[in-house]
Amino acid sequence: MPSTMPSDIISLYSASAVTPEMQQFADEVGALDNPGVTRLYLDVRREFRETLKRCKRISRGSGGIVSTGNRMFWGSVLFTRIVVTAKSMDRMLPDPKPGEHWDFSAAASLARNLFEACLVHHWLCAAGLDEDERAARFILFHLHDHGSRMRLLPDEDFDPEVLEDLTRRFDSNPVLSTWDEKRRRVALRGERTPFIQDDVLAEMGFDPVAFRMTYRFFSQHTHTGPISFYRMLEHDRGTGVETRHEKRYMLIAMGFAIDFLGLAAATQLDIVPDAETRPPFLTDAQVRANVEREQGRTSRRGR
């Protein structure tokens, strides 16, 4: 499934941001009648759900294993978040039938969240990284966490030993120790995302320019930017009902989600090679039973 944008969205951006594949797909979708768009929507939704089902197997198969290091632990944590977000997005992909609620902006917000989680998953856990480079990324990751907490809770008393330890690790890392003083000072504050999005996209094999166009489009819907509502009436969308435009836009979200889920699955299988085939640590029934017990509910049978 190629990364796609309808022609009316493509027209908002410079030609340099539009790949031939995107333009071709936009033209093909534009030539379909409404039943044809519905069939395509269902086909792509089926592919998305099959990809999600596979990722769920991998996620469950990654559980119950003693972690051998940061990569395995955080890879499993992040992959769980990726799958949960994708499941939430799946809830926003309605059936084309009367009475269903259609809200592309909600799906776009979840898709944007999913992409960002996949970027972090790759940045920290990608296969083939030099160990010094991977260690450097985890130090930056922990510094960003520390800085984020300090900004979120400015009146909280934080243990100074945490930053002191991270600083020692920063200065002793062969990669980070080569940074100049200004770059080091910024990194130690932990105020910025510790990677450049375009660099990670290039590592993942994505065209950063084409991706950025779609990311900004999703961001408009996440933050209620003007593009998300200016042409609601003209395009017959955004009222919660099924329309041609709602389905076309849903195709964008699903297509990108399929691509990113596939890459995240490949990374996770490099971490836990048998995750797709090994039995899950807990069965579905055990998970449900644990939830009911922890929430203080009992089954009728147990009363």
Report on this model:
- It is globular, with a radius of gyration of 22 Å.
- It is built from 13 helices and no strands.
- Mean pLDDT is 89; it is low at 9-17.
- Helix 4 (70-91) runs antiparallel to helix 12 and helix 6 packs antiparallel against helix 7.
- The protein has 303 residues and is mainly α.
- 65% of the residues lie in helices and 0% in strands.
- It has helices spanning 7-10, 20-30, 34-61, 70-91, 104-125, 131-152, 160-172, 181-189, 197-204, 208-222, 232-235, 244-271, 284-294.
Q: Beta-strand level of the residues, as a percent range?
A: under 5%
Would you tell me the structural class of the helices and strands? mainly alpha
State Rg: 22 Å
Tell the overall outline: globular
Query: Roughly what percent helix?
Result: 55-70%
The low-pLDDT segments are 9-17
Number of strands: 0
Average pLDDT for all residues: 89
Query: Secondary-structure element order, as H and E?
Result: HHHHHHHHHHHHH
- The end-to-end distance, rounded to whole angstroms, is 50 Å
Sheet bearing the most strands, described? Answer: none
Number of contiguous helices: 13
